[in-house]
Structures are given as C-alpha cells and as structure tokens.
Amino acid sequence: MKRLLPTAAIAIALAGCNAEMESRSMVSKFRILAVRAEPAELVADTPVEVTALFAVPRGESSPPLALDAQVAFITLNPLADLTAVTDVADLLTIRLVAVDESGEARTGGDDLSFTQNLLDKMTLLFGDQLPVYLLACNGGTIDIGILQEAMREVLATMDTSSLAILETACTGDGAVPIVSFKQIPIFRPADEEDPPVTGPNTNPSLFLLGIDGLFETAQPFSPIVCEGADGCREPVEFQVELTAESFEYYRDWSGALRSELETMYLSFFADGGEFGNARIRSDHAQAAQEIAADGRIAEEVEFFADPHLFTVEWLPPREGGRVHLWIVAHDLRGGAGWAQYDLDVVSE
Fold first, then answer.
1. Which domain holds residue 149?
2. Which residues in the chain land under pLDDT 50?
3. Which of 149, 183, 236, 259 is a plausible cystine mate for 129, CB 3.0–4.6 Å?
4. For residues 268 and 238, what is the distance between their CA atoms, to the nearest angstrom?
C-alpha cells in the first residue's frame, strides 16, 4: 500500500526521439534520450533551434555520474553555395556547445535559417530532410580537425552506419563519446486547400504528471511512501497528460488530399526502479481514420478537446531514495517533447 505525503523536489524542463532503450529504460550511464527541432519542420527563412537531451544517473538509487559534456552539432551551412562545391565538408558548419544542468544542449536560432532556394537545392543532396549529426563527449574535449576528417568519410558514403567514426574526435582519458543523427523534415505547404492542415508539424507538449491518480500542479511533488516491512514492492501508476494541441491533423505520406490524426508515443526512463512497459502508444491509433477536409466527427473533436492520458506502471527501488524520471513524447513525424522530474521514494 502506498500513500502520498506533501513535500519533495521536482525539476521540469519542456522542450522530443532517438532513444536507446540493462532494461533500455534504465539510465545507468551517459546517454542521449532525444533530439528536437523547433519548429519541428523546416520552414523557409524561419530560424530553427536544435536541442538534445542527455542523461546520467542523478538520483540516490544509482551512483551519480558527472554530466560534463561538450557537444558538436554538425549541420548544413545556411550560407553554403551548393553550385560551387569542391569539398563536401565545406557544406557543413560545426557548432560546439556545453550541456547545461538540466542535461540539454542546444544550437541554432537566428544563425540557423535557410532560404527557400537553399532548401530546394538541399533536397538533391539529402532528400526532403535536413540531416543533423551530433557528437557528445562526456569528460573530454572534441578535436575539430579529427571531426572534420571523420565527417568527410561519413558524407562520402552517406551511410549512417559509418557514424561511429565520429567517436574518434572525442579525446581525453576516460572520455565517453556518443554519436547520434536526426533528420528534420522540410515543410511543404499543400498545393490545394486542406483546412485541417494549417501549418508545419509542432512538437508534442507534456501537460501533467499524475501518481496513482493524484495530479499535483503545485511544486514540489509529494513523496511516494511505501508501507511494508520488505520495502517498496508494489508498483506506482504514472498518468501522463499531453496537451490537446499535441495531436494534429496532417497530410499523409502520399500527399493525397486527406488528413489523419497522428499517433503519439511516450518513452519512460529513470535511474532507479523498473517500468512495466517503458514505451507506450496513444490508444486512439485505430480510430485515427481518413477524414474529409470538413469532416471531423463529433466524437473525435470531443476526444481531443482535453489532454490525452497515458498510463504506465513503475516499481520504485526497494530501498527508496531519490529517483530521476525522464518522459519523452514523439509523434513519428520528427516532433518530440520531454519533461523530467525528481521523485522522492520513502520506504518505511
């Protein structure tokens, strides 16, 4: 039996997924959990910001690790002249940034914006998506010269299986490298009017976290108290709500004049405890059907008028302690969002 008492600590950051799921949901080492672009699709002459979410054990249930990472974001140079390329590596720009206390590293903004002309030419090289390569180096430094040479090899094959070579640019005794890759779709407006589709994809947003049916908006969260002589042996139920705006209509892959409601996935990570199912899907998937431009059925409008609820069970660490929880939402169209929490578990 469990009960919730007032007081604990919560750290929340809203910001989407490349998750390597020991159980894949267990954070026991330096990992990358997600990469997000804002906006989620490239729009001509609109600045884009790319954010990566990294994780190390933070809570008392795992030996804490330092998060002292340098991250290199490698993208197409917005000023690149695709008509006069002599070295494909000259097309790229490398941005070095640090990981902040929340585990996020970001780049872009006003200096990462592409003209429509460049986006059109870029499709000849990369298709309808902008590739973003990431190298993170925890406890070391990134050698730009080695990284540039490694990127030449990667681009020579255009094969993501060769990305491991980027790890050679992470230097330093005990340094831990992580390589990742994300493709940001290019937004293509419909040629004909399609009312439900109003613009580019937006990132999903996590709205609330409930624990055993109790949703607390005031912070800090109440601790989870386990009653029993044998420690925490009963699962806790997490309920996660996404905002209604997270579920969007979009043009299907064929470009036909029809729209579908997107499916949403949630992935759960923690540095302690065990999840019953660490990756779950929105249960409206079967109901998401082809809909005419003016044909949203009343039931669907009502269903999506409120944030959608996801439920998953989590067994706390037997001995209790502080656990860090990461929740990542992604919509399979490049959109992603996340939140993270510190939860205190008291074993009586």
1. 2-347
2. 1-21, 257-259, 285-307
3. 183
4. 10
